[in-house]
Amino acid sequence: MLADTLRFLIQTASDLFVLVLLLRFYLQLANAPLRHPLVQFVRSATDFIVLPLRKRIPAWRGYDTATLLTAWLTSLIAIVLLLVLAPLPYNFALPSNWLSMALLAVLYVFRATVYLLMGAVIVQAVLSWVSPYNPLAPLLELLTRPFLRPFRRLMIGQVDLSPLALLIVLQVVLMLPIAFLERMLLAQLQFGV
């Protein structure tokens, strides 16, 4: 029971931190205004680890690689801790297990990106109905516009169905390729002492 609680806490804390790191990355990519309260919150929540890493890891083609690397490392550490707490002993001496865990961490960061996009689309859709002039609306528009653009022609009357279409596509991505890859990588992990 204690191990289950620890696994829950590790998973929840790492997932939330990865989401905040990814939000930082995508807000920078979208050139979000630095004075926006959400941007300030995200930066203050992640500066303690991202800024020291930036001194050692330069940006690549303008992308904030230090933030992405931090998200990946957070996922990898969470995976290792969850496997240590698993009922079956995994063999951490095998390089193939470390490769599988590293690839799982990449997959988990990608999955978190999909969840972040889904959340942004849902919040944007709700705000467009209840509070279209909310200060969060322009940021959500910056984040979701490139993904909603291919679906913008889906209208029934005055109702834009592009968020619904994008959510369906994202859910299929989570259900098929991401779930398949996750099962495949978890099956590669070997037990033993």
Concise overview:
By secondary structure, this protein is mostly helical. It has six helices and two strands, in the order αααααββα.
Give Rg in angstroms: 19 Å
Count of β-strands: 2
H-E string: HHHHHEEH
Mean pLDDT: 94
Query: Which outline best applies?
Result: globular
Approximate helicity band: over 70%
Low-confidence stretches: none
Instruction: Quote the beta fraction.
Output: under 5%
State the strand order across the main sheet: 1-2
State the oligomer: single chain
Question: How many domain units?
Answer: 1
Largest sheet: 2 strands, antiparallel
Question: Count of helical segments?
Answer: 6
Class from secondary-structure proportions: mainly alpha
Q: End-to-end span in angstroms?
A: 23 Å
What is the topology?
Elements: H1 2-29, H2 37-56, H3 65-84, H4 95-130, H5 136-148, E1 155-156, E2 159-160, H6 162-188
Antiparallel strand pairs: 1-2
Write up this protein.
With 193 residues, this protein is an all-alpha fold. It has one domain (2-188). The chain is 75% helix and 2% strand. It is built from 6 helices and 2 strands. It has helices at 2-29, 37-56, 65-84, 95-130, 136-148, 162-188; strands at residues 155-156, 159-160. A two-stranded antiparallel sheet has the order 1-2. It starts with a helix and ends in a 5-residue tail after the last helix. The model has no long low-confidence stretch (mean pLDDT 94).
